[in-house]
Here is the input.
Amino acid sequence: MSEKRLSKTEWKRLEKDLCRSRRSVWSQITAKDRKKALLYSDKYKDFISKAKTERESVNIIVNMAQERGFVPFKQAGPGDNRFLWTFRGKAAALAVTGKVSVGDGVRIIASHIDAPRLDLKQNPLYEDMEMAFLKTHYYGGIKKFHWVARPLAIHGLALKEDGSAIPVEFGEDPHDPVLTINDLLPHLSRKVQGEKKISEAIPAEKLNVLIGGLPLLGPEDLKDGVKLRILRILNERYGIVEEDLISAELEIVPAGGSRDVGLDRAFVGGYGQDDRSCAYA
Here is the structure.
């Protein structure tokens, strides 16, 4: 028995009855909800612009939680039902007690606040060809070609001999210089990079961050003048010396805050949205 060919009207009717209709949420919600969504987005963009590391994320999360009535668990008293914990400043947990026993079940929402980045190695600072560099090793599933020839910033802590932790951040303020990783010009890279797979074009050991290029003025026979200038700048700005870098926790991340993407501002562009978007929510 041959199958009957559907008319266009029959086809459309069947499609309407059986198929899922994909519609933009934006066109389905009210004007009031669209306004709330934009306000929420502005706060989210501010969060990911400032939360470039786990420690920075935890600090912001704790402040937001305390504004909403959460109290540190060890300081909680009778009547408190919103608690927060932190672990070594790099993880946070928030809890709200329910109305029934834990034995009846709990609801857990988890998200990670780390993101792909470059960590400084121990003894990271060196000079080569009259330029100063920082040696790094990558953390997470980075695409190495994303990290060259772009503005970079440094965030983290430097630990001094007396045990004090010094916050370090530069590359974010509009008046700050930024760092970068050198790349080859297109007409010079054909043999070195162009014939390789994209995963091999930028070797991990080449992800060394350019941090300076002006030597200190002094006797001509002395070496590493660029490195010494960088150490002097770090000492003047943060009070640290080269030995403090050995135990430092310093991370290289993309410089700059989040931005609206698209002429209609439909999207958000920014570093670390996997998975800080879920952590913020």
